[in-house]
Design goal:
Blueprint: H1 7-20, H2 40-52, H3 58-71, H4 76-81, E1 93-95, E2 98-99, H5 100-117, H6 120-126, H7 135-150, H8 170-180, H9 205-213, H10 224-237, H11 245-251
Antiparallel strand pairs: 1-2
Helix pairs in contact: 1-11, 2-8, 5-6, 5-7
């Protein structure tokens, strides 16, 4: 953690976060997909599906999320519970190195979650993630266990990282930002099991590099410790909602024009 962030850096972060965290941001970002649904179960499922393949070019990501949701007939919860995914060809590609066999692996585990607990939030509550120091890692630990049990004891890192000692959990932390933050602008805030203050930054290469350039992060690796350290630094500025600054760290250096998105 880096203490005593300079005032000019805080002002820059605040300005950029306000600029990016706007309704105009939604239509070019994967968050658009869970926002299309009203049922909590659909929103949760789509948040996980969309975030799972959210790496690489954003236009490609959004195109491929749209294709993936088409597989469900845009009715994800009922498709999940009806096990429609079992009819898919394992070798058909969804996104880069993510294929139907990985989609099926994930869906089998999620079906167990929904059949047993009713919602992903209720499963998170059962895991007591609100009492965990690192809630997202606690959640993924549980989900990996359920996915393995639903898939004859096999793990699959393309669904959720298996190395929780080192993974920054960028995609899951992004999904939790959508589900937990509740300012009514971009993020949906439908979960009450966590507070925004408990979230961790979705750390990827660009966010990490931007944070280093601004003097917010010293470590070179974009790993779990860096995600924790960076979040603690951001928490020292905005303790009630540190990942609000994810918008700033994403936007700085990218040149996002929210007026045209």
């Amino acid at each position: 953690m880096i203490a005593n962030v300079p005032t000019d850096i805080i002002e820059l972060l605040d300005s950029e976060a306000r600029r990016i965290n706007s309704p105009a941001f939604i239509n070019a970002d994967p968050v658009q997909f869970p926002r299309r649904f009203e049922d909590k179960r659909d929103i949760e499922i789509v948040s996980l599906l969309a975030s799972t393949i959210a790496w690489g070019n954003r236009k490609m990501i959004c195109r491929n999320i749209d294709r993936m949701l088409a597989l469900t007939g845009h009715d994800p919860y009922n498709y999940l519970m009806d096990e429609g995914y079992e009819d898919l060809n394992d070798e058909d590609n969804i996104h880069r190195t993510f294929f139907n066999r990985h989609f099926k692996h994930l869906m089998r585990g999620l079906r167990t979650v929904y059949a047993t607990f009713g919602s992903l939030e209720d499963y998170a509550r059962k895991l007591n993630i609100s009492d965990a120091e690192l809630p997202s890692w606690k959640l993924v630990e549980g989900l990996n266990r359920v996915l393995s049990e639903a898939n004859e004891g096999n793990g699959e890192s393309r669904c959720f990282p298996l190395n929780l000692q080192n993974s920054a959990l960028k995609r899951v932390n992004m999904a939790l930002r959508w589900l937990v933050r509740d300012d009514g602008i971009v993020d949906m805030g439908i979960w009450k099991v966590l507070k925004p203050s408990q979230l961790y930054i979705p750390l990827d290469v660009h966010v990490g590099n931007t944070a280093r350039e601004l003097g917010l992060l010293n470590r070179k690796a974009n790993d779990k410790k860096s995600a924790v350290d960076l979040t603690e630094t951001l928490r020292s500025i905005r303790p009630e909602d540190p990942v609000w600054y994810d918008y700033a760290l994403f936007g700085i250096g990218v040149g996002v024009d929210t007026s045209t998105q």
